[in-house]
Amino acid sequence: MAIELGKLGIWRHYSGVDAQFAAEAEKLGYGTIWLGASPGGDLAYVDDLLAATDHLVIATGIVNIWQDEPADIARAYERIVAKYPDRFLLGVGAGHPEASKEYKKPYTALVDYLDGLDAAGVPVAGRALAALGPKVIELARDRTAGAHPYLTTPEHTRGAREILGAGKLLAPEQKVVLGTDAAEARAIGRNTVKFYLGLSNYVANLRKLGFTDEDVEGEGSDRLVDALALHGDADTIATGLRAHLEAGADHVNIQVLNEDPWPAYSEVAAALR
Length: 273
Description:
This protein is an alpha/beta fold. It has one domain (8-272): Alpha-Beta Barrel (TIM Barrel), CATH 3.20.20. The chain has 12 helices and 11 strands. It has helices at 19-27, 44-51, 70-83, 106-119, 134-143, 154-164, 182-196, 200-208, 213-216, 222-228, 234-246, 262-272; strands at residues 8-13, 32-36, 57-61, 63-64, 88-93, 127-129, 146-147, 169-170, 173-178, 229-232, 252-256. Strands 1, 2, 3, 4, 5, 6, 9, 10 and 11 form a 9-stranded parallel beta sheet that branches. It has a two-stranded parallel sheet with strand order 7-8. β1 (8-13), α1 (19-27) and β2 (32-36) form a beta-alpha-beta unit. α1 (19-27) crosses α2 (44-51) and α7 (182-196) crosses α10 (222-228). It starts with 7 loop residues before the first strand and ends with a helix. This is Luciferase-like domain-containing protein. One of its GO terms (molecular function) is oxidoreductase activity, acting on paired donors, with incorporation or reduction of molecular oxygen. Residues 20-115 form the Luciferase-like domain. Pfam families: Bac_luciferase.
């Protein structure tokens, strides 16, 4: 992989990442910030984040294929990498059916979008694909630098690595809550996890991972929430993140759910060193 993401990154809604945030994350040792919630357009804010840091990588997690044409995204990509080579990874994906009225045949749409990126000159090594199911993971393997799974477990990571094989990027997202009060931490985790239980593609993937109908009903079982939103002290969270790395991930990006994320960013990074 030409782009070095490091072992640990941060996944955060793009509206919550500015130049100061990026600089502080780099100081703590994070290798990459993933800009979540479908950042798109000309990606102008990426330049500011890279300008404020020395070696941090910025990745999109993800640019939604229903939102921007590949030629437009390719122009933004070329602008960024011309100024900051090997520090930007273009993550793309189809999102979920409930997000777009135009959501039709997502696999075919992904192939068409990658064709468009090819035609516009975006290199395979410069892009990654949001991937949950085997077919899309195979597409990530064949047409991009690798896969960026979201809302998964180390078991999914292990299966994804088997499909990707060696040498392809595997960068799962993992939600975390720093806190030793289990009931309080689980409540914070559930407040985020429950949203995804209304989205068919995530629920289908969770069932494939062995979670039952009871696990995915309502706001989610304790078992489900504990798996999808790791909680505990920094050492406990670090152990859960290492499980992804041991299962074959190259890089894990954490989504901190605490209201003030900085204690978690600091302590988890230190515990994982």
